[in-house]
Write a structure and sequence with these properties.
- Helix 6 (155-179) packs antiparallel against helix 15 and helix 7 runs antiparallel to helix 14.
- The protein has a seven-stranded mixed β-sheet. It has a six-stranded mixed β-sheet with strand order 9-10-8-11-12-13, sandwiched between helices.
- A hairpin with a 2-residue loop joins strand 9 (259-265) and strand 10.
- The protein has three domains: 5-110, Gyrase A, domain 2; 139-210 and 392-441, Four Helix Bundle (Hemerythrin (Met), subunit A), CATH 1.20.120; 222-385, 3-Layer(aba) Sandwich (Rossmann fold).
- By secondary structure, it is α/β, with parallel strands linked by helices.
- The chain has helices at 27-34, 92-104, 114-121, 127-138, 142-152, 155-179, 190-208, 211-219, 233-241, 284-299, 315-323, 344-351, 367-378, 394-415, 420-438, 444-452; strands spanning 5-8, 15-23, 35-37, 51-57, 62-72, 83-90, 108-109, 221-226, 259-265, 268-274, 302-308, 329-334, 355-358.
- The protein has 16 helices and 13 strands.
- 46% of the residues lie in helices and 18% in strands.
């Protein structure tokens, strides 16, 4: 924390601008030693004023780059330390030479996430807010960005602190009754204790209910499109992508390998996998594609199984349907424009509990209904959940589950009338688990692990 650190804060490559970020007590000294303002008649470098000038290597008497530089005095900065940012031309060479000069004048190269780590350690952000910074950088859709921004603004932190406050109040009451049993203090009745523990446990569970949708919005879902050859799998992929990505012909077996594409559906990141038609074949190349199709099938979060509605259910359809057991799936009855020949009874037997949608992909029919179903699957059928605070972090989810389990254990003992000391221990465990989310009770190892996942320069 006493070192002055520096790193490139923008991606490497060609661009209009590239930024070197420096943080620490030597930031201003280093800038004064390597930066020469263009107008020497002015007062030089002024706090929070962008200044035009040149980065100069005085040892070699050489201009490195023309830049804009700004000095920002702490604690009103991202890290709450003195910070310097140097806006170079977006050249790998310029950034490398400027950073090398900064390091030569006393800074050290920052570790991944060290700027945000300092913001956390200096009290500007709590741990959940710091993790939201990484989610903002990696966001691929408007919704995932909005969820991360809500976390950065303290959405999860506020909820967790509210729960911890309720737990702390409960711990104080328990402790008073344990430590001063003979004093004239209102004694906790077990019925009241059960009520309070249950209420806190329900609040935790309600927050956990958002985790599935939160993870899908953050990380995306993988959808495999399966079916026998020539039922319209590639047509569906093209329709969802709004472009002709997969080749579509009337010849069965045109798709010989899996095709993967990323797309945003109703602001949800989705990875579509168009698979080779699953059937018995003697073609070695097609067999390899079918094996990859089965692998994609097993790794998918959701399956869209397409059948040809203009034909009767085949044995190949039945074989694929048997693989759907235990999977979230949709049966798509395609080619409705050719007339309906598939039997309703056989179709329902084929689908089981899966949803059924009839389409004519060649005419673009049914695509909106498919997208709506995907949206409802992500939000668990509750579209209003999109407006609430969501748990989108695996670490937070795990800690919430641990806290919830501790409250369940405490409730079980309270219902049995066990000693308050045992109940207090479980309630305190829940308090500590929740503190790990915000960083109020967390080890150095966990802190280091969290920030090691950040990119360099953030």
């Amino acid at each position: 924390m006493e070192d002055t650190i520096a790193a490139v804060a923008t991606p490497y490559g060609e661009g209009g601008i590239g930024i070197i970020r420096v943080s620490g007590e030597d930031s201003l000294r280093i800038l004064n030693e390597i930066f020469k303002p263009a107008d020497c008649g002015k007062a030089g470098i002024v706090n929070r004023r962008m200044t035009y000038g040149r980065i100069v290597d005085e040892e070699e008497n050489k201009i490195i780059d023309e830049v804009l530089a700004v000095y920002m005095k702490g604690p009103g900065t991202y890290t709450m330390e003195d910070v310097v940012e140097i806006d170079c031309h977006g050249s790998v060479v310029s950034l490398r030479k400027t950073l090398s000069l900064v390091l030569r004048h006393g800074a050290r190269l920052a570790e991944p996430g060290e700027f945000t780590k300092r913001a956390f350690l200096n009290g500007r952000l709590d741990l959940s807010q710091a993790e939201a910074v990484a989610d903002l950088v990696k966001a691929r859709t408007d919704k995932s960005f909005d969820v991360a921004m809500s976390q950065l603004e303290g959405g999860i932190s506020l909820k967790v602190r509210e729960i911890r406050k309720e737990i702390l109040d409960l711990l104080v009451e328990i402790a008073v009754n344990i430590d001063y049993p003979d004093e004239d203090i209102e004694e906790i009745t077990y019925s009241n204790l059960i009520k309070n523990i249950s209420s806190i446990g329900e609040t935790i569970e309600k927050l956990l209910d958002t985790a599935s949708a939160g993870r899908m919005i953050k990380d995306g879902i993988k959808i495999a499109i399966v079916g026998k050859p020539n039922v319209g799998k590639s047509s569906l992929m093209n329709a969802l992508l709004r472009e002709s990505r997969a080749i579509v012909t009337e010849i069965p077996g045109t798709t010989r390998d899996t095709i993967e594409e990323a797309v945003s559906i109703r602001d949800i990141p989705v990875y579509l996998v168009d698979t080779a038609g699953i059937r018995d074949t003697s073609d070695k190349v097609e067999r390899l594609g079918i094996e990859r199709s089965k692998e994609a099938f097993n790794n998918a979060d959701f399956i869209i199984f397409i059948v040809d509605g203009s034909l009767s259910v085949s044995e190949e359809d039945r074989q694929i349907a048997r693989l759907l057991e235990g999977k979230k799936s949709l049966i798509l009855v395609n080619k409705s424009d050719l007339g309906r020949k598939i039997d309703d009874g056989e179709l329902r037997q084929l689908a089981g509990s899966a949803h059924i949608i009839e389409t004519s992909l060649i005419n673009g029919e049914g695509v909106d209904e498919i997208e709506e179903l995907i949206e409802r699957m992500v939000y668990g059928g509750d579209l209003s959940q999109r407006e609430s605070v969501m748990v989108n972090n695996v670490r937070h989810e795990s800690l919430l589950r641990s806290a919830g389990q501790s409250m369940k254990d405490a409730l079980h003992m309270a219902e049995k009338g066990e000693a308050l000391d045992f109940i207090e221990s479980d309630v305190n465990d829940a308090y500590e688990y929740l503190g790990e989310i915000t960083g109020e009770s967390v080890s150095d190892d966990i802190i280091n692990e969290v920030f090691s996942r950040f990119c360099l320069g953030k």
